Amino acid sequence: MIKFDYKGVSSDVIGEENGLDIEKEFSDYHDRITQIIADLNQRKDKPGQWLQWMNLGYNEETVWYVKEYASMVENRFDNILVLGIGGSALGGLAMTEALLKPYWNFLTPKQRQNFPRIFFLDNIDPDSMQSLLEMLDLKRTLVNVITKSGSTAETMAQYMIVKDMLEKELGDEYRKNIVATTDKQTGILRQLADQEGYKTFVIPDDVGGRFSVFSAVGLLPLALVGIDIDHIMQGIKDMDLALKNTDIHNNIAAQNALIHYLMDTKKGKKISVMMPYSSRLRYVSDWYVHLWAESLGKATNNDGNIVHVGQTPLKAMGATDQYAELQLFNEGPNDKIINFVRVENFDTNLEIPKIFEYTGIGYLGGKTINDLLNAEADSTKVTLSNHLRPTVTITLPEIDGYNLAQLLYMLEVQTAIAGELYNINTFNQSGVEQAKNYTYALMGRSGYEESASEINGKLLTV
Ligand code: PA5
Q1: Which atom of ligand 1 has the smallest separation from the CA of 217?
Q2: Within this chain, do residues 275 and 158 fall inside the same structural domain, yes or no?
Q3: Is the pLDDT of residue 461 over 90?
Q4: Mean pLDDT (the chain, rounded)
Q5: Are residues 203 and 81 in the same domain?
Q6: Between vectors from CA 22 to CA 6 and to CA 250, what angle results, nearest 5°?
Q7: How remote is the CA of residue 264 from the centroid of ligand 1, in Å?
Q8: Whose CA is nearest to atom 15 of ligand 1?
Q9: For residues 397 and 2, is the Cβ–Cβ distance under 8 A?
Q10: By Cβ atoms counted within 10 A, which residue in 98, 147, 272, 345 is the most buried?
Q11: Per the structure, how many domains does the chain have?
């Protein structure tokens, strides 16, 4: 199991002004946390609660269909191209980046055991899109278009471009190169997929984008590049079981949720930094930023009061950002809590050769890069404590599907518990809708005429 260490937020370590009396807080919030966990588990099967993501670890049917399709298309494609944005892209991106051999797309087919390369087109920059599409042999590319709503402008625009190109190259056969992951019955993509005859996978009801990584949204791209999804499912189930424990002393998601909530509301730590010490986990930070920001940044609470809550998530990479953000973390405003994510055992033990022995870098010879990275994490953590900055540490025994699934699932549950502590709706994103609607309006979508005149007027003044 992954481990969680909260000593770095204790007032014994960083003083009373910035730190917490953890035992007292755990005992003060014991009943509230028990009630939150029990309540989430009780509500999870009720329609409209948006808690179906808590059941995804047990969805054997999806796993079966995903594996069946992946084995059916094995060896037919050289590339997987995922079209999607936000929750429809970040989970798959985070997991493939972590679980595939680094620089996967640069490896030879033999080194990839003939599994395809994978590309996530999660933005609509015209230059990078064009360049990617020119580079890929579309005939040998399987396009997985993912959108829960089935109408997100960015994803649908990408899909329209790619579909047109595919059809021009392949004629009617183009359909075999598209697989759609979307709602089971609503949305334009669902309609088109049924009409055009694409293979489809369903994003279950009451699973929002940022909580969808363990549905077909994440599992299909993973299976298509040969990642063992059974191992992932086992990780979710084991973590889910652990997080059903209603006692905060035994529930790491509840502990980190409460710590973050108290750090924000009592100690002025308005920023939550995600800092993995592993390049393979770089997109886990992006995924976390999306999850934490969109879930917890809310204007009103469940009682209808204006609250404007939410910590700002920030990504940092160890050791790289020790040479960028650490200066600010240590000496700038004391308004952050830093989540270290550490890896006990890397796949590789990379030795530094014993050369330049009699120079100032001689001390590095004979050690490993692993030693150096761990020393960097230790020293950074201690300097943050010296500067009275709170830290928590999550440790993965190694980077594999089992541990990564545990990490992501823990962070999902942590987010849901934090949302309950803030007393807000964790699962909506009202603050995103207006910009989406204005974009529709500016692009001339019918039904958005009113928004069009509103935004056109305002554009003159901002
Ligand atoms: O978390 C969410 O629900 C959102 O960020 C969505 O993932 C994002 O808006 C993309 O939506 P869709 O999957 O409908 O294209």
Answers
A1: 13
A2: no
A3: no
A4: 97
A5: yes
A6: 65
A7: 26
A8: 147
A9: yes
A10: 147
A11: 2
- Picking from 206, 232, 258, the residue at the C-terminal end of a domain is 232
What pLDDT score does 193 carry?
Answer: 98
Are 391 and 316 in contact by the 8 Å Cβ rule? The answer is: no
**298 SS3 class:** strand
Q: What is the CATH number of the domain that holds 228?
A: 3.40.50.10490
Q: In testing the pocket of ligand 1, which one of 88, 146, 156 has its CB within 8 Å of the most ligand atoms?
A: 88
CA nearest neighbour of 75 among 52, 40, 109, 41: 109
Encoded amino acid at 161, one letter: I
Q: How confident is the model at residue 356 (pLDDT cuts 50, 70, 90)?
A: very high
Domain that holds residue 274: 3-42+245-422
Cα separations (Å) of 454 from 2, 436, 445? Answer: 50, 14, 14
| Token pair recorded at residue 309 | 């809550």
Closest CA to ligand 1's atom 3: 209
State in Å: Cα 223 to ligand 1 middle. 22
- Give residues (CB < 6 A) around ligand 1: 85-88, 147-149, 152, 155, 208-210, 294, 429
Both structure tokens of 372: 């150096």
Whole-model pTM?
A: 0.97
